Amino acid sequence: MDEASSKKITMRHFRGKSFPNETPMTGAEVRAVREQEQLSQVAFGRYLNMTPDYVSRLECGEVQAKGPALALLHVIRRHGIEVLH
Question: What is the reported pTM?
């Protein structure tokens, strides 16, 4: 086995361990993240590859972000929008 293969992390390294799950965000929390970055819904949507309508629906609580969108929202909340540049 070469060095690169021995350093590769596989699922067997995580046997018995759970992966962190991001907690859901309320509409008010999504809006707070956007406003913290001083972005319009259109601009925020562009960063997240979402339509302005979807951003609005997130902020109104009609839908909840899941998967990659939720992870990005948490990253932006912790580290700012600059991390996506």
Answer: 0.75
